[in-house]
Amino acid sequence: MTVTTSDDTAPAVAHFRFFELEVVRTRRLGHSFLRVTFGGESLADFRSGGFDQSLSLFLPPADQEHTVLPSTDEDTWFAAWRGMPDEERPVMRSYTVREQRRTPEGAVEVDIDFVLHGDASPASRWAGRAVAGRRILAIGPAVAENKSVRFQPPAATDAIWMYADETALPAAASILDRLAAGTRVRAWFEVPHEDDRIAPDTLADADITWIVREGHGRERTEQVLSVLRSAEPPAAEVPYVWLAGEAGTVRAVRRHFVQERSVDRRAVRFTGYWRLGASEEQLLAEAYAGKAPSEDPASEL
Ligand SMILES: Cc1cc2nc3c(=O)[nH]c(=O)nc-3n(C[C@H](O)[C@H](O)[C@H](O)COP(=O)(O)OP(=O)(O)OC[C@H]3O[C@@H](n4cnc5c(N)ncnc54)[C@H](O)[C@@H]3O)c2cc1C
Predict the structure, then answer these.
(1) Ligand 1 centroid vs 273 CA: distance in angstroms?
(2) Would the pLDDT of 235 be above 90?
(3) Distance of CA 237 to the CA centre of its chain
(4) Average pLDDT of every residue of the chain
(5) Which residue, by CA, sits nearest to atom 52 of ligand 1?
C-alpha cells in the first residue's frame, strides 16, 4: 500500500486500499479470455487511472467461496496475510482494470479479462469457476494518478510502439481505448489462438499485427522477433515503446528495440506480466530478495 505526501506538511494520500469485489456476471471472449464483471458498494471509491492500471486480487483457496483475510488494515494486513497457514492463505495475483464504468442505476462496475490457462493455476482456476455472488478482495486504486499506471509517454512522443501477449492484451486494449484520435500506433499482439484476435476499439491511427503463437519457450520468442525484424515501424522522432507479457519474451523484444532499432532505452517501458515455469509467488519472492530484473527504463539489458 503506497502512502505519499506532496510535501512534509501535506496530509498523506493513500493511493491504494482494499476493495471487496462481487462477481456480477461473466462472459467468454474469444478462445482464451473470460471477462469477469465485478460490482460491490466499496467500488464507489474505486478510481482507475485507466491505460494499463493494474490491481492485486486475493483469491480464495479452492474449497472456499469467498476471500477472507484476518486484516485489511493498511499497517497490519501484509504480516497477517503472510502469517496465515498455507492451505488457508488467499493467493495474490496482479490483473488489469480493463474498464471501470457507472451503470444507469449509478453503481460502479469493473471488468477484468482473465486468460484461462488451465486448472492447475489458482487464478486461472478461480476465474474458470467464477459465478455471480462470489466475493474476493483486491488492493486497488483510490486515486486515479497512481504508480500502477505504467504507460506514461512523454508529451513530445510522436509514435507509440507496443508489444503485448495475451495477458497484456487487456492493458493494451485499455491503452488504445484512451488514446486521442490520430495518435500513431504500431502494435504487435501475440495470442495463443486465432479467435483471440479481438480488435480493440480505438480512435488512434493503429496498425496492428497479430501473431498467433506456434511454439513454446524459446520458439515463441523467436517467432515474435522474426515478425518484428521483418516489420518497418513508421518513422518517428520521439517513439515511446510499451512492452508487456511473458518476461523472457519481453526482455528479448526490449533488446530488439534498443539494440537493433536504436530506441533510447529510457523511452521503453517494459513489464514482465508472468514468467514461464514460475508462479506469481516465486516472482514475488525474487522481488523481495532483490533478484527480480529491474523495470527501470535505464537498467542494463
Ligand atoms: C501488472 C500486471 C497485469 C496483469 N494483467 C493481467 C490480465 O489483465 N489478465 C491476465 O490474464 N493476466 C494478467 N497478468 C498476468 C497474471 O498475473 C499471471 O498470468 C499470473 O501468473 C496468473 O496467475 P495463476 O494463478 O493463473 O498462475 P500462477 O500460479 O502464477 O502460475 C502457475 C504456472 O502457470 C504459468 N502461467 C502463468 N500465467 C500463464 C498464462 N497466461 N499462460 C500460460 N501459463 C501461465 C506460470 O509460468 C507457472 O508455471 C498481469 C500481470 C501483471 C504483473
Answers:
(1) 7
(2) no
(3) 28
(4) 92
(5) 273
